[in-house]
Amino acid sequence: MLKRGSICFALGGGIVFFILAIKGFSLRIEVLSDAFSTAGLLMILFAGLLLVSGEGVFLGIGYALKNALCLFIPALGNRGETYTQYRQRKIEKEGAKGQGTLFLVGIFFLGIGVLFLMIWWKGFSLL
After folding, report:
1. Dist CA 107 CA 110 (whole Å)
2. For residue 5, is it left (φ>0), alpha (ψ between -120 and 50) or beta?
3. Residue 20 contacts by C-beta under 8 Å, 6 or more apart in sequence?
4. Does the model's pTM come out above 0.90?
5. Per the count of CB atoms within 10 A, which of 37, 93, 102, 127 is most buried?
């Protein structure tokens, strides 16, 4: 859990650093709000994507692409596998883990971004 959490925090920090680099490392409140909110939202959305892909939502697309690839490249060989067999084989593999940690760290980064937004909004309304 600690390893996953630290990796997620490093990922979020990297996204924040990337956004700050795009904005010219300006440490204004609105730029910090943008950076942390973007990192949080991206992490939450990726956690959702991991959740639905672990449930098998994209198995039909994978099966169709595999059969299309085998059709155009005969050397890959088509095992004659039906969709039911393909689905069973893929479901037996272990699904993605860590989407809960990614979601919680994303909520944390989004919370920091919203906090910066509230500070900026309060300061902006006073001017």
Report:
1. 5
2. alpha
3. 26, 27, 31, 32, 35
4. no
5. 102
